[in-house]
Amino acid sequence: MRAPSGEGPTLGTRLREARDHGFVGRAAERELFASMLAGTDSGALLWVHGPGGIGKSALLERLADDARAAGRAVVRVGGRTADGSVPEAFGAVPSEAGVVVVIDTFGRDAPTGGDVEEVLRRVFAPALPADALLVVASRRPPGPTWRTDPGWADLLRVIALGGLPPEDAAALLDTRGTPPELRERVLAFAGGHPLGLALAARSTGTATSAPGNWVPDHDIVAVLLTELVGTVPSASHRRVLEIAAHVQGTTEELLRSVLGGDDEAGALFDWLREQPYTGAGPAGLFPYDLVREVVDADFRWRDPEAYETVHRRIRGYLLERARTARGAQAQHVLEALIHLHRHGGVMPDYVTWRGRREVYEDVLRPEDHSAVVAMAKRAEGETSARIAAFWLDRQPAAFHVYRRVGTGEAVAFMAWLRLAAPAEEENDADPVVAAAWRHSRSAGPIREGEHLALARFVVYPDAYQRPSSVQDLVQITILSEWLRATRLAWSYLVVADWKFWQPQMDYLDQQPVDGEVAVGDRSFRLYGHDWRAVPAEPWLDRHLEEELFDVRGGPAAPANLLVLSRAEFDAAVRDALHSWRRPDRIAANPLTRGRLTAGLGADPADSLRQLLAEAVEALAQDPRTEHLYRAVTTTFFRGVPTQEAAAERLGLPLSTFRRHLARGLDEVGGVLWNKEVYGTIP
Predict the structure, then answer these.
(1) Which of 111, 220, 515, 582 is deepest in the core (most CB within 10 A)?
(2) b/e map 42-76, b = 16+ CB within 10 Å
(3) How would you classify residue 98: left for phi > 0, otherwise alpha for psi between -120 and 50, otherwise beta?
(4) Which of the four pLDDT bands, split at 50, 70 and 90, describes residue 526?
(5) Beta strand 133-138 with 100-106: parallel, antiparallel or unpaired?
(6) What is the pLDDT of residues 611-661, one digit of tens each?
(7) Number of Cβ within a 10 Å radius of residue 231
(8) Sequence-ordered list of residues with C-beta below 8 angstroms from that of 327, at least 6 positions apart, any chain
């Protein structure tokens, strides 16, 4: 083989030129290193850490080039050996004055604080020339001994290398020739992760799908899994990682619930917290964005049935927490519920996922009243401003104010009105409320103990009725009201630009109320949902296939539950008791299609019979109603042919028996009505 002549460009030259062309960003990191080279920063060790594929090696290449350009000698040494012999891990100590020593992929297979790191800190680094610089790249930050060692305290500089900012990520895609129409989707997948961007950019050259439907192929996912995650210790560890990738934030409590009370939940949580690709926040642990994407995509593709099972368990846990959590914890839970909808359906088109980065929700304060009225006037006109002032006086607690982070300035508001009965003064003052009452009376009147609710105002003048960080928080508030409300019959949303919001209204099963409602010189449309007919659980299942697997075959709409008035309900109870020995008539009873029997069992008729028996049995538990119990059971459960025969069997005059039976039926109807409306049997 002939040796290079030393004349003309080499392959190495071409490689450096290609790397130079493909390198973007990292200006702050290079600026810090330049100050260390110039001596204006006294640091001697620059430790760069971050998850796999984040660009540590590319940065070290560029820093080495910067050192050479400054006239420094650059020496690369290893941080580990094939046989794991720690004393020989680094080789000979370089002795050139001003040398820059570069150690890449340091400690990749060993936890921070291992023997190799101790040799670096106590043996190798101290032997370098006094004016040397040491640059280390590792998946993990330096161990605590570096920071507690007084000798290294002033010499150590640490960079936690994160993803590229959006402008640099877009520039990287440009250098790789990504078609402009695919850029947004690639950025949504890879974020600022350089390896993910590079692999995705390469795949877009052969993409045949529509721009909005581009997804990474399984080869990309497999490569990224290997590079970002590597090998996990067991199937249990892999499942924990899959759970963490699917939910917004993972706590030990959530793991215990989803894994079925696994005794190892604590140890698995600790393992997850130690991983270099995992961060921590108020809602729990979370994988970094690209790790989340590829782990979730691989799980969905590899085991769809288990993927759906995990999704349902996570959702069930979050729903239970949503009904009991309060304050900031409740908001985290509701954000996590919305997060489960991030992949499919239309929700990604209407949620920015920015949440509290720009604004936060707060209570209404007395000094906010004038600002609220002014915002209503600016966004919706003088008439809406007068109506807002009316409700501020009548239901001030219904108002939520959204303030700018940092200044506390009120920039938006919404009002969630709760209405138990029509009031002439309210209907005269607000045509939207009047329209809601007209609709509920015709479509399914509220019953005693129930109420309707109305998202009367959603006002953010800077982005009126458009996706925004404010709208994200408003949707969290509305979802909270939908899931946590007790005895909510109808809820209504008031929409100005209904053509824009129609896809989301369809997705959320919010049905348009006929006609438009004029408020001053503006028109609004009402959308309503009867929560008695379609409660939370079946409502959440409407688009499950679409959300999890992007199957767009239309919603799996459950049959609406029948909503009965009190008179219709009592008549159905009497008919069910009269039909006790006729299974065909029990099965046709309206109560088998209502909330009373929903979710109790596979056969609504059997569930109805059980509920009737329990309600009748409740009469026997109170000495004041024992005589009513005897009248009801003798008439319907003992097989007597007539009321006269039942009265004779009980030794009662017919008139007395009939009085006892009527009161008994009223009591049974009342017990079951409590179950229908309030969800409990007293």
Answers:
(1) 220
(2) ebbbbbbbbbbbbbbebbbbbbbbbbeeeebebbe
(3) left
(4) very high
(5) parallel
(6) 888 888 888 888 888 899 898 888 888 878 888 888 888 899 999 989 999
(7) 7
(8) none
Residue 260 to residue 283: CA distance in whole angstroms? 21
What are the tokens at 470?
């404010």
How far from the centroid of its chain's Cα atoms is residue 630's Cα? 53
- Asked if residue 508 lies in contact with residue 491, where contact means CB atoms within 8 angstroms, the answer is no
Structure tokens at 655: 């008139």
With beta carbons less than 8 A apart as the criterion, state whether 542 and 509 touch.
yes
CA angle 284, 288, 290 (to 5 degrees): 140
What single-letter DSSP state applies at residue 396? Answer: G
Distance CA 499, CA 247 (A): 32
Residues 107, 140: contact at Cβ < 8 Å?
yes
Range 394-400 average pLDDT: 96
Which amino acid, residue 7?
Answer: E
Give the residue from 144, 78, 80, 148 showing the smallest Cα distance to 115.
80
- Which DSSP helix (H) or strand (E) runs through 511? strand 511-512
Task: Convert the pLDDT of each residue in 387-396 to its tens digit.
Answer: 999 999 999 9
Q: Which residues contact 548 (CB under 8 A, 6 or more apart)?
A: 300, 304, 307, 308, 311, 343, 344
Phi-psi group of 253: left, alpha or beta (phi > 0 → left; psi -120 to 50 → alpha; rest → beta)? alpha
Whole-Å CA distances, 464 to 75, 327, 343, 457, 503: 59, 27, 25, 11, 18
pLDDT at 111 over 50: no
Q: Helix (H, G, I), strand (E, B), or coil: what is residue 107?
A: coil
Q: Count CB neighbours of 147 within 10 A.
A: 12
Max Cα–Cα distance, the chain, nearest Å: 124
Q: Which residues, at least 6 apart from 501, have a Cβ–Cβ distance to it below 8 Å?
A: 350, 465, 495
297-347: pLDDT as tens digits: 899 888 999 998 999 899 889 888 887 777 777 778 888 887 887 766 677
What's this model's pTM, rounded to 2 decimal places? 0.66
DSSP 150-196: TTTTTTEEEEE--PPPHHHHHHHHHHTT--HHHHHHHHHHHTT-HHH
Handedness of CA 500, 506, 509, 513 (dihedral sign): positive
Residue 554 burial class via C-beta count within 10 angstroms: exposed 0-12, middle 13-18, buried 19 and up: exposed
Q: How far is CA 78 from CA 75, 88, 137, 536, in A?
A: 10, 9, 11, 58
| Phi, psi torsion values for 361, nearest 5 degrees | -85, 140
User: Which tokens go with 215?
Assistant: 């997804």
Token digits for 217?
Answer: 């192929």
Q: How far is CA 167 from CA 26, 30, 133, 171, in A?
A: 12, 18, 31, 6
77 close to 134: Cβ distance less than 8 angstroms: no
Q: Does residue 23 carry a pLDDT above 50?
A: yes
CA–CA gap between residue 106 and residue 124 (Å, rounded): 14
CB neighbour list of residue 212: distance below 8 Å, 6 or more residues apart: 185
DSSP for 283-347 reads TEEEE-HHHHHHHHHHHHHH-HHHHHHHHHHHHHHHHHHHHH--HHHHHHHHHHHHHTTSSSTTG
More confident position, 576 or 48: 48
